Amino acid sequence: MKPIKNTVFIRKLEAEKKTAGGLIIPGSASDKMLPAGQVLEAGPECENVKQGDKIFLKWNEVYAVHCNGVDGFLVSEDSVLAII
What we know:
By secondary structure, this protein is mostly beta strands. Helix content is 5%, strand content 42%.
């Protein structure tokens, strides 16, 4: 899949269950964390993200897709909040 314009194709990253120090993060706390994803493909007009970037995004602005055996999401680059 090759996104057009400033569209990004991502896969969702699962929330960490433990901190770097080994503390377990309870489910209620991980539910409040920003959603994260990894960029699988970026459209030609994307200026800030590229393939392989891990990002935080506005989860209410994504579209679920299934293409070539891959489950992922399409989101506008404008919905990306930060590169991790």
